[in-house]
Amino acid sequence: MIRWLAVALATLTLTGCQAEPENWHGKDIQGLMPDLAFELKGTNGDTVTPADSRGQVRLLYFGFTSCPDVCPATLAKLRRAVNDMPDPLAGDVTILFVSVDPQRDTPERLASYAAFFGDRVVGLTAPEPRLRDLTKRYRTTFGYDEPDAEGNYNVSHSSAVYAFDRSGEARLLLRPDLTAEQVTEDLIQLASAAPD
């Protein structure tokens, strides 16, 4: 009887020491996607890698500056979500906007577009083959529609945002149906965690 009580007490004690389970609004992809890795061109022509934002929570989003609806809505939601975070944590989030339209998205155009959504947004791109490799890494893709008579075309792409923790581990897939408030809650939880 005493032995059973000792085992029960030890079990309760150890159970009480375990961390609370994480409660996410986004889809938990920890262990399902690779860590953040890329080598892209920034708006000033320099090579940008995850090391440039080491220690930050990173949000990776694929889009293009001529996008009529999804891209601006997503970036506006992310800007609001980050701005609604407490001050010390908001500065620890970087939004990586990767243009999958390198033909039209010149460094100048990409810089202007990214700046419109705030100083937490970093505009990036690369030649198409490198972009294909990167989107394949995160199990997504993009495609170009047929151009119209004026040469304008749409680009089909995913509307999801990949969230990486401070150590660069893939943690969440933020779906378009999440509200800015839900994204804020997830970002606070990610930014509050110590890096591994």
Alpha-carbon distance between the two ends:
42 Å
What would CATH call the homologous superfamily?
A: Glutaredoxin
Assembly level: single chain
Q: How many domains comprise the coordinates?
A: 1
The arrangement of helices and strands along the chain is HEEEEHHEHEHEEEEH
Radius of gyration: 20 Å
Family: Belongs to the SCO1/2 family.
InterPro entries: SCO1/SenC, Thioredoxin-like_sf, Thioredoxin_domain
GO molecular function: metal ion binding
Organism: Marinobacter oulmenensis
Please supply descriptive tags for the structure shown above.
8-stranded mixed beta sheet; globular; 196 residues; two-stranded antiparallel sheet; Glutaredoxin; disulfide bond; alpha+beta; 6 helices; 21% strand; disordered N terminus
Structure notes:
The chain is an alpha+beta fold and 196 residues long. The protein has one domain: Glutaredoxin. It is built from six helices and ten strands, in the order αββββααβαβαββββα. The strands form two sheets. Strands 1-10-9-4-5-6-2-3 form an eight-stranded mixed beta sheet. The chain has a two-stranded antiparallel sheet with strand order 7-8. The termini are far apart. Mean pLDDT is 90; it is low at 1-20.
Short recap of the structure:
The protein is of the alpha+beta class.
